[in-house]
Each structure stands twice: as C-alpha cells, then as structure tokens.
Predict the structure.
Amino acid sequence: MYPEANHTPHQTDNIDLRLCISLLFMAFGYALLSVCLFRVLAFAMNSTSFFMLYVCTGMPLGALFAKLRYKNPLTGVLRGAQTLVILALCYPVLGWIIAHGPCPLLETAQYQIQFGALWKQLGYMTLATSPLFILWGAAEYSGYEAALAAPKVKKYFYLLFVWGLACALAVGAFTIPRLGWLPTVCIALAAGLASWMVLNLHKFQNKKIVIIAACFAAACFAADLFEPVYMKSILPGGLHRIKEILNNGDMMSDAPLPATGRESRLIHQSWGKYCHIELVESNVRGLQYVLGFFDGSFIWASLPVGKISGRLDDMAFETVQPGSDVCVLGAGGGRQVQQALACGAKSITAVDIIPEVFPLFQGDLAWANGGVYVDPRVQCIAGDGRHYLENTDKKFDLIILPHTESFAATRRAAIEPGRFVHTVEAFESMKKRLKPHGALAIVKSVDRENKFFFTCANGLAEAGLNVKGWSTFGEGNPYKIHEFILLATLRDYESDYFPAAIQTAADHPEPPVYYEDFPKTPALHDSSPWTMGLSGLFFEPNTLKKSLICIFLLAVSGTAALMLFSVRSPSVDLPPYKMVVILLAGIAVGANAVCLENALIFWLIPWLFNPLSAFFVGAAVFLALWGFSSFGLKHWKWIALIGLAGSVGLLVFAPQWQSVAIVPALIAAILGSGLLFPLMGIHYRKLLIVVFLADALGGLIGGLLGVWGPMLAGLEYYFKLLPAIPFVTILLAGAAVWRQTGRE
C-alpha cells in the first residue's frame, strides 16, 4: 500500500507512526470545525435536533467520493489533510452563509410555523453545511481504509478517530469563549497543516517549514485582529434580531424607527460559555435603553434610570414592601433588580445562567443598568436558578421568573432539550423558599391563546399554591401572541398587597383579563415531552410529527437503496442473508451510538444546568469511553457481555434515570458496544464502504429516537426504550462477525 512498502521494518514502523499522528490531527481538525459550525448554527436559531440530519447527509457522499476517487488510501489521507487546510481558510465564508440562513422560528413570530417554512430552513442548512461534512466524510473514510491496511494500526483506527473528536470538543468548548471563533478555526488550520506535514516529512526542508510557520502566524494574527469585525458581520437581521436595531429599524415590527439624533450602536460583543453576547444602546420611544441579544436574538432590555417599565412585571412588584427579600431568576440586564431596589427591597438575589452577564455590568458597563449589580444589596449568582433554590436555606418575599422564556428562548425550547423551570417539580422547589406571606411571580412576553398561561397555572396549583393570573389575550388583541403574569402564594396565606386589577399598558388595546379559575390542562413535569406547552404555541398542528415522518422516510429509503446495491453488487461475495445481517448491524451500531450519547447528555443536563454544557461534556466523555473499548478487540465477546449487562442495568434503573445508580449501567453499555464498528470494519475491510454508509444511516435513525422521541413522548419513555437498543445492536453485530475471523 505504501510507497515505502519495500523499505526496512524500521522504516515501515516509522510510516505507521506517522499515519497514526496524521489521522489523529486530521480527525481533531475536522471535528473542531464542526464545533465551530455548531456554535454558528445558533445564529440561525437552529437546533441540535437537526444536527444529525446534516451529518448523515453529507458524510456518506464524501465517503462515496473517496471510494471512487482514491484508489490508494494513503493518497486519500493526504488529500483529506490538504482539504482540511483549504476548508479552514475558507471557513469564515461558510460561517457567514450559515449565520444568514432563513429563520422561520423568528420570522413568523405572529403566526404558527408552517411545515414548508421549517423544511425551507432544513434544506438550506443541509446545503450550507454540506462542504464540511462531505470533505470530512471523504477524509474519514480514506483514513479508515489507510489504517485498516496497516497491520499495526488497524486495531486502533477507530480509537484515533473518536479520541480526536473528544479532544476537539474539549478544546472548542474552552477556546471559543476565551480566544474567539476565528482563532479556534486557526487551531483547526494548524491541525490540518500538521496532518499534511507529518505524512510528507521527508519532503520538507527547513526553509519550507519556516515559510509555513510564518504564514500560519500571519493567519493567527489576522484572525485575532478581525474577530470583532467578522462577528459583527454575521449578526443576523429580521424580526427580533440584532441587525434590525443596528440599522435603526424596529425589530418588533420591521419598520424604521423615528429619527432621534442618536443612532443605535453596538457597545459590546463577546463569546460566552453558552452563547455569543451582544449589547446595543438604542433610543426606543424617546428613552435610551441597553438591549441584550444572545446569538443575535433579542432577550432582554435594561430599564432606564428613574423610569418604570409599563409592563406586566410591575404587578409583581406591587407585592414588594420596603425591607423585603427578592429573588430574580433570569436577571439578565437587571430590569427587575432595578424595580426591586426602587421598591426598597432589603436584599435582591439575582440569578442568571449566562455567567458573563454579571462581570459585564459590574465593570465598565455598569452605567448601562444604573449600576444595580454593584449595589451592596444585590447578590449575583451565576448559575441555574432552580439549582440555586434547591441548595439555599434563604427564604424570599418574592421569587420572580421574568421572561425566562423570551421570544428567542421559547422558540428554541420548543425543539431543544433543557431542564424546565416551569415544571411542577420546579414550582415545588420554589414553594419551599417562600416566606409565609411571600409570592411567586411568572411573567411571560409570549404566549398563544393562553396555552402556556393555563399550563403554568395548573402546574402552580398542582405544586400546592394559590394562583391568580392576568392575560392580554382577548378579542381586542390584534396579535396572535400575547403576554401574561401569574402570581402564586402558599395555600394558607395570601399577600395583603396583591393587586386586584392592572392598568392598560400603552401597547395593548384593552386591559388584561383577570383569572382566578383556570381550565384544567396538563401541567408540565420534568419527564414531560418537551413539546408540551411549547411547540403547540408556534408550530402548526402535526408539523413536528410530519417532519419526523419525512426524516424517517429519508432513512428508510436510504437503507433500502443501500441494501439493494449491496445484495446485487457483483463484488460482494457473500450470501444475501449475510449481507442483510451486516447492513442491519451497521445501522444498529450507528443508531446505538447516537442514542447512548444522547442518554448521557440528558442525564448530565440536571447536573450541569445547560444543554450546551451537557452536550460538550457528555459527547466528550462518551467518545473517550467509546474509543477506549477498542483496546478490547481481542476479547470482544467478553466486552460485548459487559454491554449486555449494561443493557440489563439500564432496564432495571430506567424509572430512576436521573439517579446516580444508572451511571454504571450507562457506562457498561457504552464500553460494551464501542468496539462494534471497528470490529465490523476489520472483519469486512473490503465492505468498509457498506459498513460506513450503514453506520451513517443508523446515526440518522438514532437521532430520531434520541432527540425527537423524548420531544414527543418524554424522557421516561426514552429511558424505558433505551435498554433494547444496545442489546439488539450487540446481538446483530455479534451475528455479523461470528465465525468470520480470518476470512478477510
């Protein structure tokens, strides 16, 4: 296979070592670019729910291209390293194209999202992301073939791949918030250069190395220099998006703002742990505000000093008397903190999941919200609000959840996992932290036909609270979406200061409607389907189910085509039944990988409090364990038994999936099935393309089961289904390779 095939054993060992290093760098580089892609997709309000669609569409095309184009696998590895370098250099253009894609989740704010609009975005993103995944698929497949042809490498070829992915996840999660997006792309560029140079080491002289190093240093300098300009260029426009306000347009109505002599200006932008943070100073209706945007979408507005908001959250603060203790969950820019201070609160605990918010407003930007976060009465807690309340002994006169499901957040929560703060279990935690005459207030800036309003009201009642509410939904409301406030107290007490009515806000045509009795609707629980109370607000009926069917049909048609091709191919020297078993095993391996990875991520969400943190940590840990199982290839039957035992453990602990007890079973299932792909690749090296394509199709099916299943049925049902997936996968893969040893 190698040009040096006739060289001495020492030289051959050297080639194997260089190949290992090259493959590791290449896997790391492509995976790091995918991490960068993942963060930029958020600017188009995309979701992790569809990420597997892009991966499983592009990577098989790349593998087919490599199979047809590169007869020598080592040539494919060299080309993969070269294309990684070229792709990294062109990546800013790709990022800009993705960030400016169609966004029906926000563009249709006043209407329910149609099936066609959702698939318009999915089609655009599939095409926009395809350059990365096609090139990655070609490089990965070539790397597999090259490694399998090297006797000393083939047993660990998958280990190189998955550990490269794990390292990329860890590096990307660390470098993007600290160095920036473009400098992180430069790290992927360095990986591509290293991968290419290691394989061509004998061709490089000192002069060439110096030139390459100088060019790379220049690229890094340019990346650091142009990062602020580039990030500003990809900020998206449209309703509720930052570009509209920067262009002096009304982001709520898409109309130009009246001339005030003071144009809107971007006063801060930076990458945070969970999102890109942008702050804009703007004149709205004669008042100067600082508006907060996350990933280009409007989240909150600060309150001008000395002004009252004129919004429903004013009602909550009518319950606050001088000397009160107030807790604000989702403090953001500090609007509600400022209101609490104006009411004479003795102490305010401000909690926000975005940790960068508080240092920003405690430093040079303290003027932006009147310095509320430097006030000695205010305690700033960077973390999850529910976790804070469950781990503090302090009690409050008012706990308020102000717009924690904003326009952007609500739409994202409709199709993305998260730990709800509006579940019965969360309300029970909040109830324990109320003083006898205290109140719990929920204020939402978006709802449709009182769906979420009634859901939250029934959740509060189920948690054992008295509930009153006001909603702006009515015959005179010209908008399909509206806002509401719910005030709840302990059953035996009620605040003496509860307002009986609320004045008409300036932007509403009629007073909010008062409710003491609410229609009985299902309340949200921690294990409820994610779509409950959320997607029904913004998606047309059955939009998600129809989309699920479409993706499922794509997976089924791809599977059928692959089976037909494999069974009829003259190059396949296997009985048809054996070929079908191999295909089913490959599909099961891909589905199992995604399902187990998602299970680990779901388990981590309540512990890490944010889906993005859980994704990076969970995926990295999963890949590290998945690759580690490759060390047991010689004893794969015993390792598979560990996986079967893990499946049994998952079945036993399924009802307590949030407990620590399920972790050993989950780890055993991951370790016991992690060697199945390399096992099949080694035994069926001549059919590697079939195994690769089947694995990709399985990944798509696993994405449906692992993300869409909990959305439509709930996490409890998902963990009850999960044990069968690794169990069946291990049996199918075992049947595929049984008595096949030594035949390839």
